[in-house]
Amino acid sequence: MEGDPTLCLRIFDLNCWAIRYLSKRRQERVRLIGDTLRQDGFDLVLLQEVWSEQDYSDLRVKLAGCYPFSHYFRSGVIGSGLCVFSRFPILDTLLYQYSLNGYPYMLQHGDWFCGKSVGVSVGVTAPLLSLSLQLHAEYCREKDAYLPHRLVQAWELAQFIRHTSKAADVVLLGGDLNMHPEDVGIRLLRGWTGLRDAFAEATRFEGCKNGCTLVPDNCFTDKSELLPFPLGIRIDYILYKAISSFTVKCEELKTTTGPAAGTDIPFSDHEAVMATLHIQRRGQPVGATLGTAGLADVVTEARTEVGVGLRAARRQRYSSGRMAVLALLLLLLQAVAALGTLAGLGAEQPFPKLSFCLLAFLALGVLVLAAGLHLFHTMEVKMLHGTEDQMWMALRALQERP
Amino acid sequence: MEGDPTLCLRIFDLNCWAIRYLSKRRQERVRLIGDTLRQDGFDLVLLQEVWSEQDYSDLRVKLAGCYPFSHYFRSGVIGSGLCVFSRFPILDTLLYQYSLNGYPYMLQHGDWFCGKSVGVSVGVTAPLLSLSLQLHAEYCREKDAYLPHRLVQAWELAQFIRHTSKAADVVLLGGDLNMHPEDVGIRLLRGWTGLRDAFAEATRFEGCKNGCTLVPDNCFTDKSELLPFPLGIRIDYILYKAISSFTVKCEELKTTTGPAAGTDIPFSDHEAVMATLHIQRRGQPVGATLGTAGLADVVTEARTEVGVGLRAARRQRYSSGRMAVLALLLLLLQAVAALGTLAGLGAEQPFPKLSFCLLAFLALGVLVLAAGLHLFHTMEVKMLHGTEDQMWMALRALQERP
């Protein structure tokens, strides 16, 4: 950004909800997104939930003229769904996969299979670090079983940003954080990194009330989910931070409001977020970090939730381990009985062969499943425990800070 | 490091081979390691393969006086085995888990279960970034099936170092890289990060010939593995790099040579590596990075190997998918036959019930296993493909460099 007194950067962020076979009118919407992006000429486009590589390839071909640089982040079974299009060169990319991301056996909540990650692209008029990401979904706000996993992700993300952003001038984060603005995860992420919320900082705002990105007016949203929130909820964010001797100011923030211009359908079940940032050299970045005391409170709150998750994971590890041991015992018992019969010890076979075999296979199945679960929950315990430790170290460092 | 003209830093690195129930004379050796560390007073101790948290706790208690700061990195099913002890405060830690790390069904090669990672500790007379790590083991040098995984790890490690080290003054890496000095993975890591090899740079060296750390003289090493290398091999390294306006010089490098002083056993099956570094302000760091052309060659070589791994992973994904489909077809066929019999279509049951049931359970078992394998290899393909893409991007950037 040398010799450029004010750089105006226009950013587009959208959770595209492009799941093959499942998302309604997917191909039509992807075409629509591509057309709009080509027309509007943003500088940087951060997309999430582009699960099909074919959709990405189609977009890339369509946008090659105005966004010559792009990257698709691959991970997990299905993919990360993240991609970035840019008018400026992307010099380097990096993928960071969260260590915890739901449970493989919760097939109805497909998060585990997506390998949710944060995709980092460096460059775009370097040194600008832009991150596109999505955190674990919240399926039930009242009884949010995934809160500890989402907090581990928010913590890992915050740590990752702290460690990778030091040489950047500006950090930009766009994505579906699956958290309301006042949630502990958002406060942790913002407090620990100093990232600022474009919605809160914008000089002008235009779009859905309160900046909501999941609104009942959108024909694709699940109305029952939004019943407690008649205005909708805000879970998609553009966050930013100036490092070194730059300042960033959000001049304008917009969200889409339902159907795209000239059509009857919106881009996605989420609304798009569009920000215009002014980046200037000189001047110290305005510190938006929470004070040490406020930050310690947030980290303590997050650590308590991670602790709750840790205890739950330990219980599940114990139950699955006990189940595996019981199944193993049953199998051994059957083996002894079978050997006894073979050796002619028993006068006759006491069980019908068919039930005996069925039982053995059932026990084997339970053993394999329970052992798999035990392994999985052991990993979960390690990661939650590790995060709790890291947060404790952070708290200690905060207390020792003058 | 302000106001400190020359800082002398003594580092100890050891793969401890402390696997519960499997490693010979483990407790005795861990005690010995603790005693030596307490006596010798290093500044920074990087240990690998401390698989038991109990061993870490014992070491921590013993070393609390001389190394008041320590951290144990938790990950995977068993743990990462990594820990760090330091005479200076550890300000922050971060764990980066490699996206690929062997196969869960290769139980005899336990790498997958360890969740191999790189543990980063920041601080220790900040800003010094120290990394402790271990890469995937090499089980057969002639037919090294894990080479693509190890290369993905080396690449991720190099990228991780590039992105996290920018604000550090000095980067220090100690660990068991499971690669010979001339291997493509080491050349990739060193070329892409500019890290320098303490053994090659040391003013004085004392220890096993050629700096070997796996030597036939050690009573715990597998002699048959070392047959092609009568002097031993060097796979444990201390690498370092000065950033900003510092210079680092390796004054002395030492390795242990078999039995520890006053005993009949060595610390581990690996030899320990000990370096004395002199860190000085002023002066430009001596560039040890390969020239652009040399670097492009290394990245190309590594990318070719990753491509070989990608094709193998695709084949395995295809075979496991086909196997799952066949098992599913068999199950469906059986279901149709059973329903037919129930509906009284067939005059009599053509198969004995027991074999019928056994076959069904067998098909079900094969289906579950093959589907699991298919998922696993799908993830493997994604990660190898993603790394290949990143390397291609790196090559493009290298070619465009003046």
Automatic annotation (TrEMBL), chains A, B:
One of its GO terms (biological process) is sphingolipid metabolic process. It is a multi-pass membrane protein. It is an enzyme of class 3 (hydrolase). Its EC number is 3.1.4.12. Residues 15-270 form the Endonuclease/exonuclease/phosphatase domain. Its main location: membrane. SUPFAM superfamilies: DNase I-like. The keyword Magnesium applies. This is sphingomyelin phosphodiesterase. It comes from Platysteira castanea.
